[in-house]
Protein backbone atom coordinates (compact mmCIF):
# COMPACT_ATOMS: atom_id res chain seq x y z
CA UNK A 1 0.00 0.00 0.00
CA UNK A 2 2.75 2.46 0.97
CA UNK A 3 4.77 1.72 -2.13
CA UNK A 4 1.76 2.16 -4.35
CA UNK A 5 0.87 5.49 -2.80
CA UNK A 6 4.41 6.74 -3.08
CA UNK A 7 4.50 5.80 -6.73
CA UNK A 8 1.29 7.72 -7.34
CA UNK A 9 2.67 10.72 -5.45
CA UNK A 10 5.54 10.87 -7.88
CA UNK A 11 3.03 11.75 -10.59
CA UNK A 12 1.69 14.79 -8.73
CA UNK A 13 2.96 18.29 -9.42
CA UNK A 14 5.02 19.93 -6.74
CA UNK A 15 2.96 21.27 -3.88
CA UNK A 16 0.26 18.61 -3.93
CA UNK A 17 -0.12 16.91 -0.56
CA UNK A 18 0.65 13.25 -0.25
CA UNK A 19 -1.95 12.53 2.41
CA UNK A 20 -4.77 9.98 2.08
CA UNK A 21 -7.82 11.00 0.14
CA UNK A 22 -10.17 10.32 3.06
CA UNK A 23 -10.39 11.31 6.73
CA UNK A 24 -8.56 9.47 9.49
CA UNK A 25 -11.95 8.79 11.10
CA UNK A 26 -15.32 8.62 9.36
CA UNK A 27 -17.98 11.27 9.77
CA UNK A 28 -20.98 10.51 11.96
CA UNK A 29 -23.44 7.85 10.89
CA UNK A 30 -26.13 10.51 10.43
CA UNK A 31 -23.83 12.55 8.20
CA UNK A 32 -23.01 9.57 5.98
CA UNK A 33 -26.59 8.34 5.65
CA UNK A 34 -27.74 11.89 4.92
CA UNK A 35 -25.16 12.09 2.16
CA UNK A 36 -26.51 8.83 0.71
CA UNK A 37 -30.01 10.36 0.76
CA UNK A 38 -28.86 12.62 -2.07
CA UNK A 39 -28.89 9.58 -4.37
CA UNK A 40 -32.32 8.60 -3.00
CA UNK A 41 -33.61 12.10 -3.81
CA UNK A 42 -32.08 12.34 -7.30
CA UNK A 43 -32.35 8.82 -8.72
CA UNK A 44 -36.09 9.00 -9.57
CA UNK A 45 -35.22 11.61 -12.18
CA UNK A 46 -33.03 9.11 -13.99
CA UNK A 47 -35.33 6.16 -13.31
CA UNK A 48 -38.78 7.44 -14.24
CA UNK A 49 -37.89 10.34 -16.55
CA UNK A 50 -34.76 9.59 -18.57
CA UNK A 51 -35.09 5.80 -18.62
CA UNK A 52 -38.30 3.87 -18.05
CA UNK A 53 -41.43 6.01 -18.25
CA UNK A 54 -41.12 9.55 -19.55
CA UNK A 55 -38.49 8.88 -22.25
CA UNK A 56 -40.57 6.17 -24.00
CA UNK A 57 -43.70 8.31 -23.56
CA UNK A 58 -41.92 11.29 -25.11
CA UNK A 59 -40.67 9.32 -28.11
CA UNK A 60 -43.77 7.24 -28.80
CA UNK A 61 -46.59 9.61 -27.77
CA UNK A 62 -45.38 13.21 -27.75
CA UNK A 63 -43.37 12.83 -30.96
CA UNK A 64 -45.66 10.10 -32.24
CA UNK A 65 -43.06 7.99 -34.02
CA UNK A 66 -40.58 5.71 -32.22
CA UNK A 67 -37.84 6.14 -34.83
CA UNK A 68 -38.10 9.92 -35.06
CA UNK A 69 -38.58 10.19 -31.31
CA UNK A 70 -35.50 8.10 -30.49
CA UNK A 71 -33.47 10.23 -32.87
CA UNK A 72 -34.66 13.50 -31.28
CA UNK A 73 -34.12 12.13 -27.77
CA UNK A 74 -30.57 11.23 -28.72
CA UNK A 75 -29.85 14.76 -29.95
CA UNK A 76 -31.31 16.32 -26.77
CA UNK A 77 -29.17 14.07 -24.57
CA UNK A 78 -26.10 14.81 -26.68
CA UNK A 79 -26.57 18.58 -26.41
CA UNK A 80 -27.03 18.33 -22.65
CA UNK A 81 -23.88 16.24 -22.35
CA UNK A 82 -21.83 18.84 -24.22
CA UNK A 83 -22.96 21.55 -21.78
CA UNK A 84 -22.03 19.34 -18.82
CA UNK A 85 -18.64 18.48 -20.27
CA UNK A 86 -17.79 22.14 -20.87
CA UNK A 87 -18.75 23.38 -17.42
CA UNK A 88 -18.19 20.66 -14.81
CA UNK A 89 -14.37 20.84 -14.44
CA UNK A 90 -14.41 24.63 -14.00
CA UNK A 91 -17.25 24.55 -11.48
CA UNK A 92 -15.50 21.79 -9.52
CA UNK A 93 -12.25 23.76 -9.42
CA UNK A 94 -14.08 26.94 -8.35
CA UNK A 95 -15.69 24.97 -5.52
CA UNK A 96 -12.25 23.63 -4.49
CA UNK A 97 -10.88 27.17 -4.38
CA UNK A 98 -13.90 28.52 -2.50
CA UNK A 99 -14.19 25.53 -0.20
CA UNK A 100 -17.94 25.08 0.08
CA UNK A 101 -19.98 22.71 -2.09
CA UNK A 102 -23.50 23.06 -0.69
CA UNK A 103 -24.35 26.49 -2.19
CA UNK A 104 -23.65 25.04 -5.63
CA UNK A 105 -25.70 21.98 -4.80
CA UNK A 106 -28.64 24.11 -3.70
CA UNK A 107 -28.62 26.14 -6.90
CA UNK A 108 -28.43 23.15 -9.22
CA UNK A 109 -31.01 21.16 -7.28
CA UNK A 110 -33.42 24.09 -7.69
CA UNK A 111 -32.62 24.18 -11.41
CA UNK A 112 -33.28 20.44 -11.66
CA UNK A 113 -36.67 20.81 -9.97
CA UNK A 114 -37.63 23.66 -12.32
CA UNK A 115 -36.66 21.63 -15.40
CA UNK A 116 -38.72 18.69 -14.16
CA UNK A 117 -41.71 20.97 -13.65
CA UNK A 118 -41.64 22.00 -17.31
CA UNK A 119 -42.21 18.39 -18.37
CA UNK A 120 -45.89 18.75 -17.44
CA UNK A 121 -46.21 20.54 -20.79
CA UNK A 122 -45.30 17.39 -22.76
CA UNK A 123 -48.72 16.74 -24.26
CA UNK A 124 -49.34 14.99 -27.59
CA UNK A 125 -50.85 17.21 -30.23
CA UNK A 126 -49.36 20.39 -28.75
CA UNK A 127 -46.26 21.03 -30.90
CA UNK A 128 -46.07 24.67 -29.78
CA UNK A 129 -45.13 23.42 -26.29
CA UNK A 130 -42.38 21.08 -27.49
CA UNK A 131 -39.58 23.72 -27.30
CA UNK A 132 -40.40 24.35 -23.62
CA UNK A 133 -40.34 20.61 -22.92
CA UNK A 134 -36.92 20.32 -24.58
CA UNK A 135 -35.67 23.30 -22.55
CA UNK A 136 -36.89 21.53 -19.41
CA UNK A 137 -35.08 18.34 -20.36
CA UNK A 138 -31.82 20.18 -21.05
CA UNK A 139 -32.00 22.19 -17.82
CA UNK A 140 -32.77 19.07 -15.80
CA UNK A 141 -30.07 16.97 -17.48
CA UNK A 142 -27.39 19.60 -16.91
CA UNK A 143 -28.45 20.40 -13.34
CA UNK A 144 -28.60 16.71 -12.38
CA UNK A 145 -25.06 16.07 -13.60
CA UNK A 146 -23.62 19.22 -12.01
CA UNK A 147 -25.30 18.30 -8.72
CA UNK A 148 -23.72 14.85 -8.84
CA UNK A 149 -20.28 16.44 -9.34
CA UNK A 150 -20.54 18.48 -6.15
CA UNK A 151 -22.12 15.70 -4.12
CA UNK A 152 -19.36 13.30 -5.19
CA UNK A 153 -16.78 15.82 -3.99
CA UNK A 154 -18.17 15.48 -0.45
CA UNK A 155 -17.54 11.72 -0.39
CA UNK A 156 -13.79 11.56 0.47
CA UNK A 157 -14.32 13.70 3.60
CA UNK A 158 -16.95 11.37 5.03
CA UNK A 159 -15.29 7.94 5.10
CA UNK A 160 -11.87 6.35 5.44
CA UNK A 161 -10.17 5.23 2.21
CA UNK A 162 -10.60 1.59 3.21
CA UNK A 163 -14.40 1.85 3.34
CA UNK A 164 -15.19 4.61 0.87
CA UNK A 165 -16.38 1.97 -1.60
CA UNK A 166 -18.99 0.80 0.88
CA UNK A 167 -20.34 4.31 1.37
CA UNK A 168 -20.44 4.94 -2.38
CA UNK A 169 -22.30 1.66 -2.85
CA UNK A 170 -24.73 2.58 -0.08
CA UNK A 171 -25.55 5.81 -1.89
CA UNK A 172 -26.20 4.04 -5.18
CA UNK A 173 -28.22 1.35 -3.41
CA UNK A 174 -30.43 3.94 -1.73
CA UNK A 175 -30.78 5.65 -5.09
CA UNK A 176 -32.03 2.49 -6.76
CA UNK A 177 -34.42 1.88 -3.86
CA UNK A 178 -35.77 5.40 -4.27
CA UNK A 179 -36.17 4.83 -8.00
CA UNK A 180 -37.95 1.55 -7.31
CA UNK A 181 -40.47 3.23 -5.00
CA UNK A 182 -40.98 6.00 -7.54
CA UNK A 183 -41.73 3.41 -10.23
CA UNK A 184 -44.29 1.74 -7.97
CA UNK A 185 -45.87 5.14 -7.45
CA UNK A 186 -46.07 5.77 -11.19
CA UNK A 187 -47.69 2.38 -11.80
CA UNK A 188 -50.23 2.82 -9.01
CA UNK A 189 -51.21 6.30 -10.20
CA UNK A 190 -51.40 5.42 -13.90
CA UNK A 191 -52.82 1.90 -13.53
CA UNK A 192 -54.70 1.73 -10.19
CA UNK A 193 -56.49 -1.38 -11.44
CA UNK A 194 -53.29 -3.30 -10.65
CA UNK A 195 -54.02 -2.89 -6.92
CA UNK A 196 -57.76 -3.34 -7.17
CA UNK A 197 -58.82 0.31 -7.44
CA UNK A 198 -61.24 1.17 -10.23
CA UNK A 199 -61.28 4.92 -10.94
CA UNK A 200 -64.05 6.65 -12.91
CA UNK A 201 -63.98 6.02 -16.68
CA UNK A 202 -61.24 7.94 -18.46
CA UNK A 203 -59.36 8.71 -15.25
CA UNK A 204 -56.26 7.46 -13.49
CA UNK A 205 -55.69 7.86 -9.76
CA UNK A 206 -55.97 11.36 -8.25
CA UNK A 207 -58.44 12.35 -10.97
CA UNK A 208 -55.76 12.51 -13.67
CA UNK A 209 -57.20 12.37 -17.19
CA UNK A 210 -56.05 9.50 -19.38
CA UNK A 211 -57.03 11.20 -22.65
CA UNK A 212 -54.52 14.02 -22.09
CA UNK A 213 -51.87 11.67 -20.60
CA UNK A 214 -51.83 13.52 -17.28
CA UNK A 215 -50.58 10.43 -15.44
CA UNK A 216 -47.42 10.45 -17.60
CA UNK A 217 -47.03 14.23 -17.57
CA UNK A 218 -47.34 14.50 -13.77
CA UNK A 219 -44.10 12.53 -13.47
CA UNK A 220 -42.03 15.71 -13.95
CA UNK A 221 -43.63 17.80 -11.18
CA UNK A 222 -43.85 14.75 -8.89
CA UNK A 223 -40.12 14.13 -9.34
CA UNK A 224 -39.42 17.78 -8.45
CA UNK A 225 -41.49 17.39 -5.25
CA UNK A 226 -39.71 14.15 -4.32
CA UNK A 227 -36.37 15.89 -4.82
CA UNK A 228 -37.33 18.89 -2.69
CA UNK A 229 -38.37 16.67 0.23
CA UNK A 230 -35.65 14.03 0.32
CA UNK A 231 -32.57 16.13 -0.42
CA UNK A 232 -33.11 18.07 2.83
CA UNK A 233 -31.16 15.64 5.13
CA UNK A 234 -28.01 16.09 3.05
CA UNK A 235 -28.19 19.87 3.46
CA UNK A 236 -28.94 19.63 7.19
CA UNK A 237 -26.61 16.93 8.45
CA UNK A 238 -23.76 16.27 5.99
CA UNK A 239 -20.77 18.51 6.75
CA UNK A 240 -19.48 20.85 4.08
CA UNK A 241 -15.95 22.10 3.71
CA UNK A 242 -15.34 25.51 5.29
CA UNK A 243 -15.46 28.50 2.97
CA UNK A 244 -12.33 30.40 2.04
CA UNK A 245 -13.88 33.81 2.74
CA UNK A 246 -12.51 35.22 -0.50
CA UNK A 247 -14.58 37.15 -3.07
CA UNK A 248 -16.27 35.03 -5.69
CA UNK A 249 -14.48 36.73 -8.59
CA UNK A 250 -11.11 35.86 -7.07
CA UNK A 251 -12.19 32.28 -6.44
CA UNK A 252 -13.54 31.95 -9.98
CA UNK A 253 -10.30 33.22 -11.52
CA UNK A 254 -8.30 30.78 -9.44
CA UNK A 255 -10.62 27.93 -10.40
CA UNK A 256 -10.21 28.65 -14.10
CA UNK A 257 -6.42 28.88 -13.73
CA UNK A 258 -6.32 25.57 -11.87
CA UNK A 259 -8.28 23.71 -14.51
CA UNK A 260 -6.20 25.08 -17.35
CA UNK A 261 -3.02 24.25 -15.43
CA UNK A 262 -4.21 20.76 -14.56
CA UNK A 263 -5.18 20.01 -18.16
CA UNK A 264 -1.84 21.32 -19.41
CA UNK A 265 0.03 19.08 -16.94
CA UNK A 266 -2.38 16.15 -17.02
CA UNK A 267 0.39 13.76 -17.97
CA UNK A 268 1.78 14.20 -14.46
CA UNK A 269 -1.39 12.47 -13.27
CA UNK A 270 -0.84 9.64 -15.73
CA UNK A 271 -2.59 6.88 -13.78
CA UNK A 272 -5.69 8.97 -13.16
CA UNK A 273 -5.65 10.10 -16.79
CA UNK A 274 -5.65 6.49 -17.98
CA UNK A 275 -8.67 5.77 -15.82
CA UNK A 276 -10.54 8.87 -16.96
CA UNK A 277 -10.06 7.94 -20.62
CA UNK A 278 -11.32 4.39 -19.98
CA UNK A 279 -14.25 5.73 -17.96
CA UNK A 280 -15.07 8.20 -20.71
CA UNK A 281 -15.63 5.30 -23.11
CA UNK A 282 -17.33 2.60 -21.03
CA UNK A 283 -19.58 5.06 -19.18
CA UNK A 284 -20.77 6.39 -22.51
CA UNK A 285 -21.94 2.89 -23.37
CA UNK A 286 -23.66 2.47 -20.00
CA UNK A 287 -25.52 5.78 -20.27
CA UNK A 288 -26.69 4.86 -23.76
CA UNK A 289 -28.01 1.41 -22.82
CA UNK A 290 -29.81 2.81 -19.75
CA UNK A 291 -31.23 5.71 -21.70
CA UNK A 292 -32.40 3.76 -24.74
CA UNK A 293 -33.36 0.36 -23.23
CA UNK A 294 -36.90 1.40 -22.40
CA UNK A 295 -37.29 3.24 -25.70
CA UNK A 296 -36.16 0.13 -27.56
CA UNK A 297 -38.60 -2.12 -25.70
CA UNK A 298 -41.46 0.29 -26.31
CA UNK A 299 -40.63 0.33 -30.01
CA UNK A 300 -40.25 -3.40 -30.71
CA UNK A 301 -42.85 -4.77 -28.27
CA UNK A 302 -45.27 -1.85 -28.08
CA UNK A 303 -44.86 -1.65 -24.30
CA UNK A 304 -46.84 0.99 -22.46
CA UNK A 305 -46.51 2.49 -18.99
CA UNK A 306 -47.46 -0.75 -17.20
CA UNK A 307 -44.94 -2.97 -18.96
CA UNK A 308 -42.18 -0.36 -18.77
CA UNK A 309 -42.88 0.22 -15.10
CA UNK A 310 -42.64 -3.49 -14.29
CA UNK A 311 -39.49 -3.70 -16.39
CA UNK A 312 -37.97 -0.83 -14.41
CA UNK A 313 -39.00 -2.39 -11.11
CA UNK A 314 -37.28 -5.66 -12.05
CA UNK A 315 -34.12 -3.83 -13.03
CA UNK A 316 -34.03 -1.90 -9.75
CA UNK A 317 -34.85 -4.94 -7.60
CA UNK A 318 -31.78 -6.63 -9.06
CA UNK A 319 -29.63 -3.49 -8.95
CA UNK A 320 -30.15 -2.77 -5.23
CA UNK A 321 -28.45 -5.91 -3.81
CA UNK A 322 -25.99 -5.87 -6.71
CA UNK A 323 -24.72 -2.40 -5.90
CA UNK A 324 -24.46 -3.17 -2.16
CA UNK A 325 -22.51 -6.33 -2.97
CA UNK A 326 -20.46 -4.25 -5.40
CA UNK A 327 -19.47 -1.96 -2.53
CA UNK A 328 -18.10 -4.97 -0.64
CA UNK A 329 -16.36 -6.19 -3.79
CA UNK A 330 -14.94 -2.69 -4.24
CA UNK A 331 -13.40 -2.55 -0.76
CA UNK A 332 -12.29 -6.19 -0.79
CA UNK A 333 -10.78 -6.52 -4.27
CA UNK A 334 -10.49 -2.95 -5.48
CA UNK A 335 -12.54 -0.50 -7.50
CA UNK A 336 -10.91 -1.46 -10.79
CA UNK A 337 -11.89 -5.12 -10.52
CA UNK A 338 -15.42 -4.17 -9.47
CA UNK A 339 -15.73 -2.03 -12.60
CA UNK A 340 -14.38 -4.83 -14.80
CA UNK A 341 -16.98 -7.26 -13.45
CA UNK A 342 -19.71 -4.70 -14.05
CA UNK A 343 -18.66 -4.02 -17.65
CA UNK A 344 -18.83 -7.73 -18.47
CA UNK A 345 -22.33 -8.03 -17.00
CA UNK A 346 -23.62 -4.97 -18.87
CA UNK A 347 -22.02 -6.13 -22.13
CA UNK A 348 -23.66 -9.56 -21.87
CA UNK A 349 -27.02 -7.95 -21.19
CA UNK A 350 -26.59 -5.59 -24.14
CA UNK A 351 -25.64 -8.50 -26.40
CA UNK A 352 -28.85 -10.25 -25.38
CA UNK A 353 -30.90 -7.17 -26.22
CA UNK A 354 -29.14 -6.84 -29.57
CA UNK A 355 -30.18 -10.41 -30.46
CA UNK A 356 -33.90 -9.62 -30.10
CA UNK A 357 -36.40 -8.37 -32.64
CA UNK A 358 -40.19 -8.42 -32.53
CA UNK A 359 -40.27 -11.90 -34.12
CA UNK A 360 -36.83 -13.41 -33.45
CA UNK A 361 -34.30 -14.06 -30.68
CA UNK A 362 -30.63 -15.05 -30.59
CA UNK A 363 -29.88 -13.30 -33.89
CA UNK A 364 -32.38 -15.06 -36.11
CA UNK A 365 -34.26 -17.79 -34.22
CA UNK A 366 -37.86 -17.21 -35.29
CA UNK A 367 -40.44 -16.84 -32.50
CA UNK A 368 -44.02 -15.69 -32.39
CA UNK A 369 -44.33 -11.93 -31.92
CA UNK A 370 -46.40 -10.49 -29.13
CA UNK A 371 -50.09 -10.91 -29.91
CA UNK A 372 -52.64 -8.16 -29.28
CA UNK A 373 -54.48 -8.79 -26.03
CA UNK A 374 -51.98 -11.43 -24.85
CA UNK A 375 -50.93 -11.58 -21.21
CA UNK A 376 -48.01 -9.49 -20.04
CA UNK A 377 -44.60 -10.68 -21.23
CA UNK A 378 -45.99 -13.79 -22.92
CA UNK A 379 -43.77 -13.51 -26.02
CA UNK A 380 -40.38 -15.27 -26.07
CA UNK A 381 -38.66 -12.05 -27.11
CA UNK A 382 -40.05 -10.23 -24.08
CA UNK A 383 -38.83 -12.95 -21.72
CA UNK A 384 -35.33 -12.90 -23.19
CA UNK A 385 -35.37 -9.12 -22.93
CA UNK A 386 -36.06 -9.50 -19.20
CA UNK A 387 -33.15 -11.94 -18.75
CA UNK A 388 -30.86 -9.52 -20.58
CA UNK A 389 -32.13 -6.64 -18.45
CA UNK A 390 -31.30 -8.64 -15.32
CA UNK A 391 -27.66 -8.69 -16.42
CA UNK A 392 -27.80 -4.93 -16.92
CA UNK A 393 -29.14 -4.63 -13.38
CA UNK A 394 -26.24 -6.66 -12.01
CA UNK A 395 -23.66 -4.40 -13.61
CA UNK A 396 -24.97 -0.86 -13.91
CA UNK A 397 -24.88 0.05 -10.20
CA UNK A 398 -21.45 -1.40 -9.33
CA UNK A 399 -19.99 0.19 -12.46
CA UNK A 400 -21.07 3.67 -11.40
CA UNK A 401 -20.38 3.27 -7.67
CA UNK A 402 -16.91 1.76 -8.10
CA UNK A 403 -15.95 4.37 -10.69
CA UNK A 404 -16.90 7.12 -8.25
CA UNK A 405 -14.81 5.44 -5.54
CA UNK A 406 -11.79 5.05 -7.79
CA UNK A 407 -11.66 8.80 -8.39
CA UNK A 408 -11.54 9.39 -4.62
CA UNK A 409 -8.72 6.85 -4.29
CA UNK A 410 -6.63 8.29 -7.12
CA UNK A 411 -7.14 12.06 -6.62
CA UNK A 412 -4.83 14.40 -4.64
CA UNK A 413 -6.86 15.41 -1.55
CA UNK A 414 -6.78 19.16 -2.20
CA UNK A 415 -8.03 18.69 -5.76
CA UNK A 416 -10.98 16.37 -5.17
CA UNK A 417 -13.63 18.78 -6.45
CA UNK A 418 -11.61 19.62 -9.52
CA UNK A 419 -10.96 15.97 -10.34
CA UNK A 420 -14.59 15.08 -9.79
CA UNK A 421 -15.33 17.87 -12.23
CA UNK A 422 -12.86 16.35 -14.70
CA UNK A 423 -14.43 12.97 -13.86
CA UNK A 424 -17.76 14.46 -14.91
CA UNK A 425 -16.04 15.90 -17.99
CA UNK A 426 -14.64 12.48 -18.91
CA UNK A 427 -18.04 10.96 -18.30
CA UNK A 428 -19.69 13.59 -20.47
CA UNK A 429 -16.94 14.55 -22.90
CA UNK A 430 -18.06 11.81 -25.26
CA UNK A 431 -21.39 10.91 -23.64
CA UNK A 432 -22.97 12.98 -26.36
CA UNK A 433 -21.23 10.69 -28.88
CA UNK A 434 -23.20 7.49 -28.23
CA UNK A 435 -26.60 9.23 -28.24
CA UNK A 436 -25.50 11.23 -31.29
CA UNK A 437 -24.36 8.11 -33.13
CA UNK A 438 -27.58 6.36 -32.11
CA UNK A 439 -29.63 9.32 -33.30
CA UNK A 440 -27.82 9.46 -36.66
CA UNK A 441 -27.71 5.66 -37.16
CA UNK A 442 -31.37 5.26 -36.24
CA UNK A 443 -32.34 7.92 -38.77
CA UNK A 444 -30.08 6.52 -41.50
CA UNK A 445 -30.76 2.79 -41.08
CA UNK A 446 -34.32 3.24 -39.85
CA UNK A 447 -33.94 0.63 -37.11
CA UNK A 448 -33.82 0.92 -33.33
CA UNK A 449 -31.62 -2.18 -33.07
CA UNK A 450 -28.52 -0.23 -34.04
CA UNK A 451 -28.45 1.34 -30.55
CA UNK A 452 -27.35 -1.89 -28.84
CA UNK A 453 -24.53 -2.47 -31.34
CA UNK A 454 -23.13 1.01 -30.66
CA UNK A 455 -23.33 0.40 -26.90
CA UNK A 456 -21.33 -2.84 -27.19
CA UNK A 457 -18.51 -1.10 -29.04
CA UNK A 458 -18.14 1.54 -26.31
CA UNK A 459 -18.17 -1.07 -23.51
CA UNK A 460 -15.53 -3.22 -25.21
CA UNK A 461 -13.14 -0.32 -25.84
CA UNK A 462 -13.50 0.96 -22.26
CA UNK A 463 -12.84 -2.50 -20.83
CA UNK A 464 -9.59 -2.83 -22.77
CA UNK A 465 -8.35 0.63 -21.76
CA UNK A 466 -9.04 -0.04 -18.08
CA UNK A 467 -6.41 -2.79 -17.90
CA UNK A 468 -3.54 -0.29 -17.68
CA UNK A 469 -4.95 1.58 -14.66
CA UNK A 470 -3.01 0.98 -11.40
CA UNK A 471 -5.02 1.20 -8.20
CA UNK A 472 -3.13 1.88 -4.94
CA UNK A 473 -3.14 -1.23 -2.75
CA UNK A 474 -4.39 -3.50 -5.53
CA UNK A 475 -2.79 -5.08 -8.59
UniProtKB/TrEMBL annotation:
* Signal peptide segment: none
Question: Mostly located where?
Answer: membrane
Membrane topology is: Multi-pass membrane protein
Concerning Pfam families, the annotation shows: ATG22
What PROSITE patterns does the annotation carry?
A: MFS (PS50850)
Q: Which UniProt keywords apply?
A: Membrane, Transmembrane, Transmembrane helix, Transport
Q: Is Translocase one of the keywords UniProt gives this record? A: no
**Do you know which SUPFAM superfamilies this protein is assigned to?**
MFS general substrate transporter (SSF103473)
PANTHER family the UniProt entry points to: AUTOPHAGY-RELATED PROTEIN 22
Protein name, as recorded: MFS transporter
Q: Which organism is it from?
A: Ferrovibrio xuzhouensis
Amino acid sequence: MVAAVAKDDAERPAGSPASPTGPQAPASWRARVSWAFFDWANQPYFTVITTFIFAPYFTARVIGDSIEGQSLWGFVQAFSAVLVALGAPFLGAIADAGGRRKPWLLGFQAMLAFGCGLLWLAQPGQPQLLPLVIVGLVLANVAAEYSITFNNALLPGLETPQKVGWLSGLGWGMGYLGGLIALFGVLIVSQPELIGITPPPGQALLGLQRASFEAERIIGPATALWLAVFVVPMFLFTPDRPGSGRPFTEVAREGFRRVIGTIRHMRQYGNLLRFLIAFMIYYDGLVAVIGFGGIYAAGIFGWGTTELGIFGILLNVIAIPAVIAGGWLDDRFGSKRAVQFAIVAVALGTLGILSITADSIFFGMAVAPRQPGASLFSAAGERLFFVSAALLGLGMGPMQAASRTLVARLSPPDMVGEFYGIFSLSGRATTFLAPLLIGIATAVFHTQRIAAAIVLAFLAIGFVLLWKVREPGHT
